[in-house]
Write a structure and sequence with these properties.
Blueprint: H1 5-24, H2 28-34, H3 39-67, H4 69-86, H5 93-107, H6 111-121, H7 127-153, H8 158-178, H9 187-195, H10 204-216, H11 218-234, H12 239-266, H13 269-279, H14 281-289, H15 293-321, H16 327-355, H17 359-384, H18 396-401
Helix pairs in contact: 1-6, 1-7, 1-8, 3-4, 3-5, 3-9, 3-11, 3-16, 4-5, 4-6, 4-8, 6-16, 7-8, 7-12, 7-15, 10-15, 10-16, 10-17, 11-16, 12-15, 13-15, 13-17, 14-17, 16-17
């Protein structure tokens, strides 16, 4: 699997894109604060991004199914690079909200197309390992990006935004030269993609995946809105240490994801999801109880490792249950539901944070646990009914049905 050059090219692309995203993750909120943004404006920035990302995930998935994954990825990455640099020309805090909306729109073009490409080029019985490798590269970007962003920010806030634009342009080069086109989008294939009924996107195993991503993306809403403020104001972390904290989460995730992919191909996926998903709930509680950055960094490392062994099972289930002619649409819908969760979390947790900084973390742990139980149980039921492979090599009949 590590010798699959198309898979590695796709994974390297998302790594560069994630690096660009991660470069500004530790500093965007602080940069906005330095230009007079209030907590309400910061919350609106996150909501604006999540709302536009929510609105455009599914449409970009439709475009990728009809006109090609590679084309959609390349165009989106070019525009993301331009938006990264545009931050440096903005001084009015209200304009940050507008820019974040546009950024969310173009950011929706990358992951649905890339994840659909992986399903296009990898046989069903190897997709757990493939998504493990994909996830490892993706999180490597989050390892490199925040660490570099925190380092660059010590010399001024402008440098992380410039570097983020450069990373997106580098990703465009990789897409153009190395990423395969995937399924050809001739008129016949476009018609088949359009003919897939919407009800096919809501099968039992897919609904289970949607519940899981809803719980998973609660953290993203908290992350892009409040994490830098939480770490700096309540845990005493510097900007450099905030970047280090992201890297500490990513290192075990990068190392563990390929092994998690092997687990997804060999064990019952629902069992992996339920066991490792519920194991994360106490970690959210530990975050809420912490008053110093040291214990949080330790839990970050453990959390990254556990997540690495769980997520490939979720990804493999999603790919196996997706209609072959609507894979990007399914990935887009999956991401849309996740972004809706982040949008809800960004607004709800901002209100809870104003009351007590620990409340968002406790509520997030409870909601995540409920989603794991509900989603994992639906996937388990789907496996028992033969609606989706449970982690063993798929038979031709099962693959055709998926």
């Amino acid at each position: 699997m590590h010798r699959n050059r198309p898979l590695l090219a796709i994974s390297l692309t998302v790594c560069m894109a994630a690096t660009g995203l991660g470069l500004v993750l530790p500093v965007r909120v602080l940069y906005a604060r330095s230009h007079g943004a209030s907590l309400a404006i910061i919350g609106a920035m996150a909501s604006s991004y999540l709302l536009s990302n929510f609105l455009f995930q599914y449409p970009t998935g439709v475009l990728a199914d009809r006109f090609g994954r590679k084309r959609v990825m390349a165009i989106g990455l070019v525009v993301q690079a331009v938006v990264s640099i545009a931050y440096l020309a903005v001084t009015n805090p209200v304009l940050f909200v507008v820019l974040r909306f546009f950024e969310g729109m173009v950011a929706a073009s990358t992951l649905p197309a890339a994840r659909a490409l992986v399903a296009d080029i990898v046989p069903a019985e190897q997709r757990g390992r493939a998504y493990g490798i994909f996830g490892s590269w993706f999180n490597a970007g989050f390892l490199l990006g925040p660490a570099l962003g925190g380092l660059f920010a010590s010399r001024g806030y402008a440098l992380p935004f410039i570097a983020a634009g450069a990373m997106r342009l580098l990703a465009v080069v990789i897409v153009a030269l190395l990423v395969p086109a995937g399924q050809e989008r001739h008129p016949r294939e476009r018609a088949r993609a359009s003919a897939v009924p919407r009800r096919a996107l809501f099968s039992l195993p897919l609904v289970g995946s949607y519940l899981l991503v809803f719980g998973d993306y609660l953290w993203i809403g908290f992350d892009i809105t409040l994490v830098p403020l939480w770490m700096r104001n309540h845990l005493g972390a510097s900007v450099a240490v905030i970047g280090l904290a992201y890297a500490v989460w990513a290192v075990p995730n990068v190392i563990g994801s390929p092994f998690g992919g092997r687990v997804a191909d060999r064990l019952r996926r629902s069992r992996v999801i339920l066991t490792l998903g519920l194991a994360q709930v106490p970690m959210y509680l530990a975050y809420g109880l912490s008053s110093a950055i040291g214990p949080v960094i330790v839990v970050f490392a453990l959390h990254g490792a556990v997540y690495a062994f769980m997520q490939p099972s979720v990804d493999a289930n999603l790919a196996a249950a997706s209609p072959p002619d609507a894979r990007a649409r399914t990935q887009g819908l999956y991401s849309t539901i996740g972004i809706a969760s982040s949008f809800l979390a960004a607004n709800l947790f901002t209100l809870l944070y104003a009351i007590n900084f620990r409340l968002p973390l406790f509520v997030m742990g409870a909601l995540f646990g409920l989603c794991v139980i509900a989603g994992g149980s639906l996937i388990r039921l789907s496996e028992q009914r033969g609606l989706v492979p449970g982690g063993r090599p798929a038979t031709p009949a099962v693959e055709a049905a998926g």
